[in-house]
Amino acid sequence: MVEFEFWWLLVIPFFFALGWLAARVDIKQIISESTDLPSAYFKGLQCLITNQYDKAIEAFDDAIKINNQSLELHFALGALLRRTGQIDRAINLHIDLLEKRELTLEQQDSVKAELAQDYFKAGLYGRSEELLLQLNKERYYQFSLNTLLEIYVKERDWKKAVETATELEKISGVSFRVSISHYYCEIAVNQILNKKYLLAKKSLNQALEECMNCIRANILMGDIYAEEKLYEEAIVYWKKIEFQQPEYLGLVAPKIIAAFQNLNKINEGLSILARFFDIYKLKSLLNILYKTVLENEGPSQAENIARKELIQRPSLSALDQLFQAQAISKVNKIGNIELIQQTIKNAIGDRRFYMCNQCGFKARQFHWQCPACNAWESLPSEPTDIILETK
Distance between the two ends of the chain, CA-based, in angstroms? Predict the structure, then answer.
C-alpha cells in the first residue's frame, strides 16, 4: 500500500493558483478581442442564428465599414454572400482586397482561397483551378486538392480526377478507392463510345485493381464482349456480380437473357435467372423472369410465376402481372379485366424510384453517380415504392 505524502497538500493549492491565473489571462484576452469588434458584428451573428440572412449581410457590411482592416469580417461576409447566391458581390469583395490592400503573402493566400471558392460556386472552374494551384502547399494543399477534385469531376476530366484523388488519399489517409474505380469506369465509357475496346478493357482492369468490388467495371467489361459478339465471355463477367453484390443482379439480368437469346440458349438463361430469383428475391429479377417466360413459354407459364409470387409476397405489381397473363390467355372471361389491369398500372406506375441515400434525390433510372449531390453508388440497386407529395 502506498503511503500518503502530506507535502502533496502544499502542492495542490499552488497548481490551483496557476490554473486560476491562466483562466484570468484568457478571459482578459477574450474581453479585449471582443471589445475590438463592432456591435454590428454581434448583430450579424444574432441574425445568422435566426436565419435572417439578408439582415446578417447588412450587419456584416456595417461591421466592415467600422473596422475595414479585419480580414476575418470580410471572409465572414464573403461566405455569407456565397451561401445566399450573391456570388458576384463575393467575387468583387475579395478582388478588392487583393487589388486595394497591402497584404502579406500569407494574407494573399487566404484571400485567394476565398476567391477560389467564389469562382467555384459561380461555375468558373478554370479561374478557380488557377488560384488553387497558386496557393501555399504547406497551408492549403489538402483544401486545394479537395476543391480541385470537385472541379475535375464536374468538368469530367477523369484522368486529372484520378491523379488528384490518389494524391489526396496519400495526405489525408481517407480512402478514395471506390471513387477512383468509377473515374476509370468513366474513362472506359468514353473509350467504348469511340470503339477503343482494348483501351477500355485496360481502364476497367485498372478500376478492378483499385476496387476489386467494382460492380460497374464487370458490367462494362461484359458490355464490351457483348458488343464484340463474344456472348459467353460477356455472361461470365455479368455473372461475377453475384459474388460481388448480388443485389445488383437486376441491372444485368436483361443483358444475360439477351446474350443467351443470341446463343439460342434461352432455357439456360431462364434457369440462371430463376435460380437468382429463388435465392435473392429481387423484384427486378422477377420482372425480367416474368417478361421472358411470357415471351418464350407463353402466358400460362407466366401466370404461374405471377400467381406464386402473389401468394408468397402479395403486391400490386404481381397482381398486375397475373391479370396481364390472364388477359392474354383469355382464361379469365371478365370483360373489364384489362380495365382493372390498367387501374393497377396507374396506381403503381409512378411510385417506383431510386432514392439517393445521401441527399434524397429521386430518379426513375439508376445512376452510378447521384445527379444531385455527385456521390458515387449512393442510389440503391433496386427501386423502391415512394409516394410523392402532391401540392
Answer: 76
